[in-house]
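Internal ticket #5521
Category: modeling
Description: The requester needs a full-assembly model to guide mutagenesis choices. All entity lines are attached below as received. Residue total reported by intake: 331.
Assigned to: D.W.
Attached entities:
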Amino acid sequence: MNIELSVVIPVYNEEQGLAALFARLYPALDALGISYEILFVNDGSRDRSAAMLRGQFQQRPDVTRVILFNGNYGQHMAIMAGFERVRGRRIVTLDADLQNPPEEIGRLVAKMDEGYDYVGSIRRIRQDSAFRHYASKAMNLLRERITRIRMTDQGCMLRAYSRDIIDAINSCREVSTYIPALAYTFAQRPVEIEVEHEERAAGVSKYSLYQLIRLNFDLVTAFSLVPLQLFSLAGMLISLLSILFVGFLAIRRLLIGPEAEGVFTLFGIVFFLLGIALFGIGLLGEYVGRISQQVRQRPRYLIEALLEQGEAEAALLRPAPAAAKQDSGAG
Ligand code: UDP
Ligand code: MG
């Protein structure tokens, strides 16, 4: 069996939007006239998403495959799990919330026909809050500065990759990563196109401000050591200046004699240095934390059940009770 296109979709608590997604995604892909498969990865949803995916699998078992995680491992781990199982020659990632219109997949594929191996996307009119908009603009700028990754719109998941890139990604054992950026480092001929962008069809964003900040730390620390180096450079410079300052104070002490008025200035300086030291420790922690995650070598995610036709027919029958247990846990 030769599959042209695999579509990987992470799903986390999307029960309100899934029906609309199914209604638009399948016709859009059928219209392309190529062989395709859709891999849904349920990232431990606590609502009826898993049950709905199961229902959809029963309706279109020819092109639908479902991976059910036993917990919430995050959007990028869900995509990774999909990547490890895709069979297609080309792979497209898509959000489940219909912010990326499925109708645009055809354009990504057409772009790949021109010989590109990575097709990124830029949202034409962003339908995000002003804060999200400016925060991601600032993040883009920082990333362009300190890594060699060039992406106009890092937040858009509607992207297409060649099989080679996916194979390269699969050989990476990183625990925390940002897939579009990782893929970009393996791309030989990357390109970007503009795509439509819509309001979330239903449900709410799964990313809190905290998670967005975490994601950006992943993005920076997974691809660059610059923050760490910057800090040690700044630390060196500041300690050099402090030595000069201490020398200056010593000379003053000899020439003018003791004086107490400068105490608060000293306090100010001490707090300043303390602040930098604490920030540096935190920054070190970012890297050390990743090292410790890596050396633990835990599995990055655990799969509870796989729904697919063919060789995994058995897997389809076995885990049904387990999945049912999870569904009932939603109530
Ligand atoms: N998602 C996931 N696991 C998570 C968070 C999100 O699989 O822990 C999925 C979610 O179902 C959606 C995609 O990742 O398909 C993007 O999430 P969302 O739309 O909430 O992010 P935003 O558009 O706000 O960046
Ligand atoms: Mg979204």
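Resolution: model delivered.
Comment from assignee: Residues 10-12, 14, 43, 72, 74-75, 78, 95-97, 99, 205-207 surround uridine-5'-diphosphate (ligand 1) (CB under 6 Å).
Ticket closed.
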